[in-house]
Design brief:
Elements (H helix, E strand, L loop, with lengths): L4 H7 L4 H11 L4 H25 L6 H20 L3 H21 L2
Length: 107
Amino acid sequence: MKTKISDWYWAGLYDIVELKERLIKLGQDNGENYEMLKSRAFELVEDELVRALSEHGPMKSSHEGWALIREEVDEMWEEVKANRKVEAREECKQVAAMALRYLMEVH
């Protein structure tokens, strides 16, 4: 019987990269498992969004929103240039969370 990626997902192995590597190794890198990876990515961004909202007040203007997004993009770029993939993914979550805040808070 083939081990399914969902077995690992529900067992608590939540790292997206680890899940993706296991999928490839098992030859199960297909569309149905993509939905699980996408779901986990959204969960990670939501966690970051909740953290950011609890620590900072709402964005007051489009300029402030842009500055926050730009700051996170710049930090991500520094990690990418240094080939620090784990840190770059952490920054990527922050970029996504700031973009969501912009959509939610800037009117």
